Amino acid sequence: MARPARPVRLSPPAWLTAGFKPAPTPVPWAAVGRAAVALSAPLAVGLAVGQPAYGALVSMGALSGVIGDTADAYRMRILNIAVPQLFGAVGVTLGTLVFGHGWVAVAVLTLVALVSGMISSIGAVASVSGLLLLLNAVVGAGLPMPDPWWKAPLLLGVGGLFVLALTLLGWPLRRAAPERSAVAATYRSVAELYEATGTPAYDEKRQAVTASLNQSYDLVLARRARQHGRAPSLVRLLAQLNAVIPLVEAAPAAQLRARLHGPLSGTIPAAVRELADAVEEGRGRTGTPVLELPAPERPAEKAVDHALRYAAAVVHQAEPDASNVDDRLGRPAALRIRVRRATRAALFSEASWRYGLRLALCIGLAQALVSLIPVPRSYWVALTVTFVMKPDFGSVFSRAVLRAFGTAAGLLLAALVLAEVPRGWWDVPVMCVLAALIPAFSAKGYAFQTAAITPVILLLSDTLNQQGFDLVMPRLYDSLIGCGIALIAGYLLWPESWHSRIGDRLADAVADTAAYVTCAFGGTEDQGGRLRARRKLYRDLSTVRSEFQRALTEPPPTGTRAAAWWPLVVAVERIVDATTAARIRVNHGAPDPDPAEVAAVERELRELAQGIRASDTLVEVRSELPGDENGVLAPLRREVSAARAIAGPDLR
């Protein structure tokens, strides 16, 4: 008897729906409160003095500050909010000067888009600065601003500075609290990593440790770069952060030991959590702390025991010696050197010019289109293009889709507000509620952020141009037009192959892994060099993983190829772990590997890197890596062979 046919379930593909799943992140209540006050208070002041348009402009500047307030450390917040405000002031000034000048405005905004795109590739602060430069230029060219020309940038800047002032209210009391919390969070992530040894959750926890370490070093070293001397609190934090590195290095060896001999004692992650509590509370005590740990027998156990006791001694040390605290990632270069490097990268980087030209083409088309076709308040088309085309915010394709849906959802809420809420003082409590949704929804994903920002911008626009409910449908049409321009001129017309964007990054990571193997077992005694090489490699692999996850959200063939190559990314991470585990075992009693065995592993990895660059097609490749099956490199050889078998480039 034939089985009944299963009903066909029609559902959208995963790459299309991934962005609609809210991220499981907590609500940032402090940011929620700041946003509510920062955007509603200027409206109230504007209404009180009889200048609601001025209040709306200050709130627009505050909105930019709220979006840019993404850092944890107070000194980094100053940069993240204040520097972009300067670029925003320049942008709105240029836009105001070309308002109503037709094709002159098209040319100026196209040039601004080119500059914005090029500087956006420098870094996080530059990216937000480029975004505000273009956004405010578009707003200034599309909305009538109060005379004289300097009034609009001044009011927008006041809004940004208001957000900065609200942000810094806790500085006198908390000062180093964000950095201290970040270092403590790194210790807790290491505790979770040790709990996961021997389980399938190990890889996920190791990625979390890498992300936490990156964040902690970025916060602490960025603060150090702005200190002329070595402040005791920073010396202590850096020493405590450096002390966690041996624990992180010992984790791969502990994972291998757990696979062979069972899980580690629960006293180890418990002891790491106690250290995390001590770091966060900022307490220290003299003398050597007493740790009740099981007696180590194997090299991996000795490595964990040694690392944990060393970390405990550093964490509880009353005053670390400033002359004995090194920066494991290297101290940041002087400001003038970093500015010179960033300028050179923006002017001479192919990626910088390519993105700048793509953005300029899209903005030029958007402005030309609305100049030829009468679209009321057409600045929304260029605004949509600007948000969608941010390359460091995710896939252009997925962002266009998410923005279309997010805008539609936000317009539903905006329509309700504009239709039912009378204009005037009722705008203040409504804005307080809507503004609070921005940081709460932004943490959930781009579609949710768009849905939260849309009604805020529409309410502020209504205060400036008094169109009311008539704003709603034109904004939906404008958003769809902007998304269409971004998809066609910014995506389909630039067929950058997936291999050139992601394959080369993975190939570089594999080549760096080969160099790390040589560095780990090449006879050099430069332990600091090995540490820096390993940290750089893990950071680069984290970037590669992010690039692949972004590619997975794009339609075929890009997403399909990314999914096919994904196992190779995981395999390379396992190779790095196996190398670190072998080095740690050698440091604690295991015999050194045969140099010929090390050379064979390095050769296989370099061939793999060359193959990745030469081909987009992956086939199974058999690799024979002879060696001592009981030797320290046996797990590493197995991981390299597995990587070649999972995905070996077809070099034919």
Outline of the structure:
The protein has 652 residues and is mainly α. It has helices at 14-17, 29-48, 52-68, 74-97, 103-119, 124-142, 151-167, 171-174, 177-195, 202-225, 232-261, 267-281, 299-315, 335-348, 350-372, 379-388, 396-420, 427-442, 446-465, 472-492, 498-521, 527-551, 558-587, 595-614, 634-646, and strands spanning 618-619, 648-649.
Provide tags for this entry.
652 residues; two-stranded antiparallel ribbon
H/I helix tally: 25
| Annotation, overall tally of beta strands | 2
Which structural class do the helices and strands define? mainly alpha
Shape designation = globular
Structural write-up:
The protein is mainly α. Helix content is about 70%, strand content about 0%. It contains 25 helices and two strands. The protein has helices spanning about 15, 30-50, 50-70, 75-95, 105-120, 125-140, 150-165, 170-175, 175-195, 200-225, 230-260, 265-280, 300-315, 335-350, 350-370, 380-390, 395-420, 425-440, 445-465, 470-490, 500-520, 525-550, 560-585, 595-615, 635-645, and strands at about 620, 650. Strands 1-2 form a two-stranded antiparallel ribbon. The radius of gyration is 27 Å and the shape is globular.
